[in-house]
Design brief:
Its EC number is 3.2.2.20. By secondary structure, this protein is mainly alpha-helical. About 55% of the residues lie in helices and about 0% in strands. It has helices spanning about 15-20, 30-45, 50-55, 55-60, 65-70, 75-80, 90-110, 115-120, 140-155, 160-170, 185; strands spanning about 125-130, 175. The two termini are about 20 Å apart.
Length: about 190
């Protein structure tokens, strides 16, 4: 018997695997939260599948999303990244990744971990929506607006409300699996 999945991932094995194993699973690990945050910032204005197909290239190019290393990237490393055809070569987004790594560590210092900070917005419990169809999922919410504003105030870039809501979905802060999707109750 075939599993019922959310409609957005159907037809692409990479998308389906991501949906089945990662999307919507609550993430509390700072390194993984950082990876998703950076990937979501690169996704801004593009489709998620575009980023997903380049994910391994991003991992290699950005030292496997080691935010401590990224925070110390110099202009030479930034120039190298801008020549890498395996990633999305957007100068503003590459530079934002470096500044976001620094802001990320400042939050860790203040709150003990980025996870404590970000999950504090949902009182450490995922918001469980009841979507019948993924097309009815919001692009933003008042909560993603609030988080976006707070991150921007703390120096983050490319963290608009849409990027933050996508991050919330990806990292399980909100469960936007369709109610008839096999993952809805699993996550």
């Amino acid at each position: 018997m075939q599993k019922h999945r959310c409609g957005w991932c159907l037809g692409d094995p990479l998308y389906e695997a991501y949906h089945d194993t990662e999307w919507g699973v609550p993430v509390k690990d700072d390194a993984t939260l950082f990876e998703f945050l950076i990937l979501e910032t690169f996704q801004a204005g593009l489709s998620w599948i575009t980023v997903l197909r380049k994910r391994e290239n991003f991992r290699k190019a950005f030292d496997y999303f080691d935010y401590k290393k990224i925070a110390s990237y110099d202009q030479g490393k930034i120039d190298e990244l801008l020549q890498d055809p395996g990633i999305i070569r957007n100068k503003l987004k590459v530079n934002a990744t470096v500044s976001n790594a620094n802001a990320f560590m400042e939050i860790q210092e203040e709150f003990g971990s980025f996870s404590k900070y970000i999950w504090g917005f949902v009182e450490n419990k995922p918001i469980k929506n009841k979507l019948q169809n993924y097309k009815n999922a919001p692009a933003t919410t008042s909560l993603s607006d609030t988080i976006s504003k707070d991150l921007k105030k703390r120096g983050f870039k490319f963290v608009g409300s849409t990027v933050i809501y996508a991050h919330m979905q990806a990292t399980g802060m909100v469960n936007d699996h369709e109610v008839n999707c096999f993952r809805y109750h699993e996550v």
